[in-house]
Amino acid sequence: MYDVIIIGAGPAGLSAATYAGRAGLNCLILESTMYGGQITSTSEVENYPALKKTAGWELAENLYQQAVSFGAKLNFEEVKSIIDDGMLKTVVTPENAYVTKTVIIANGAKRRHLGVEGEDELSGKGVSYCAFCDGSFFKDKTVCVCGGGNTALEDALYLSNICKTVYLVHRRNEYRAQKHIIDIVNKTENIVPVLSYVPVKISGENTVQSITLKQVETGEEKLIETDAVFVCIGLSPENNAFAEIVELDKNGYIVADESCETTCKGIFAAGDTRTKVLRQIVTAASDGAVAATAALTYINQTEG
Length: 304
Known about the structure:
Elements (H helix, E strand, L loop, with lengths): L1 E6 L3 H12 L4 E4 L25 H14 L3 E3 L5 E5 L2 E5 L4 E9 L4 E2 L15 E2 L2 H4 L7 E5 L3 H11 L4 E6 L8 H9 L3 E5 L1 E7 L6 E6 L5 E5 L2 E4 L3 E2 L30 E3 L11 H23 L1
Parallel strand pairs: 1-2, 1-6, 2-3, 6-17, 8-15, 9-10, 9-15, 10-11
Antiparallel strand pairs: 4-5, 5-6, 7-16, 12-13, 13-14
Helix pairs in contact: 1-2, 1-6, 4-5
């Protein structure tokens, strides 16, 4: 039996594991893919406190090694459900059923898809969800970025240093990003804004060759020839496995405040998976520390 099982090995989960280990808790991390979460696909991290620019994979590795040094164990298994047995919980995977005193859900959130014709068929063939991962494949070519938030504009700026032309498509008539990022984008000559348009189709034979856009107000369609489409329209939580044991909001995020407590006693949520205003590496790491500390308090109170 474990003191705490952490679902997810991103910044929130690894931070929670470090704090749990330092507190002397017997800790197991369950991760379905690879440790590090989304930061492993980020070429540079420059807004993490006390760190200058660092590679995403390097930060992920450091977080993992730190958690392991304090006794955390990592198993690569996908969690299918959590069973609430009152004082104890059972975390179920296809391979095992683990009994634990507390659970910290830190499974993050996945990148949203456009949901248009051709997107799935051409995924990995010019359709990408990570400019830093795949941008170098399109050196001196024409690409299209879909989205209007910070991530989309930052990706467009990154690609502008590699690609010949970057079309920046957004469904509104103005971007939602921070002003200083918008100002830089507007001054970048090879970024072409395409505002008040939405994608309706991605076309190509084996690779992306064009994207069809529709004007929001008039419905007029136009085709842009492009070698790649980078989708940057936000995140989507995958919390269906937990819907019957903790409360989710209308967007599928786990309802939990700054204390990281969910509606089920002994279960906590940390990082991008929970309701919050800002989803960044630093807030995920902070959540992990809070959730692990809350789990320790819960154990002490129930066993005291």
